[in-house]
Amino acid sequence: MTRAPQVRVRRAYDPPKEADGQRVLVDHLWPRGLSKDRAHFDEWCKQVAPSTELLNTSD
């Protein structure tokens, strides 16, 4: 039986941990004040981030 991959959600500003595995940023904008050297992201997936319209909806 194959195990499903684990997905953990963390803040972009959190320092990377050794147990993180692959780090992927899912957002349209780069986090303010965070250099690409300090971020340690393996990939930046802008295309799968929620749209601005979706983020601005309220109940």
3D architecture notes:
This protein is low in regular secondary structure and 59 residues long. Helix content is 14%, strand content 7%. It is globular and about 40 Å long. The longest helix has 4 residues, at 36-39. It is built from two helices and two strands; from the N terminus they run E-H-E-H. Helix 1 links the parallel strand 1 (24-25) and strand 2 (43-44). The protein has helices spanning 36-39, 52-55, and strands spanning 24-25, 43-44. A two-stranded parallel sheet has the order 1-2. The mean pLDDT is 88.
- Report the span from N to C terminus: 41 Å
Number of helices: 2
Integer-rounded radius of gyration: 14 Å
| Main beta-sheet strand count, sense and barrel state | 2 strands, parallel
Q: Strand arrangement, largest sheet?
A: 1-2
Unreliable stretches = none
Q: What is the ordering of alpha helices and beta strands?
A: EHEH
| Number of E-type strands | 2
Average pLDDT for all residues = 88
Quickly give the structural class: little secondary structure
Form type: globular
Sheet-strand content, in percent, reads: 5-15%
> What helical percentage do the residues reach?
10-25%
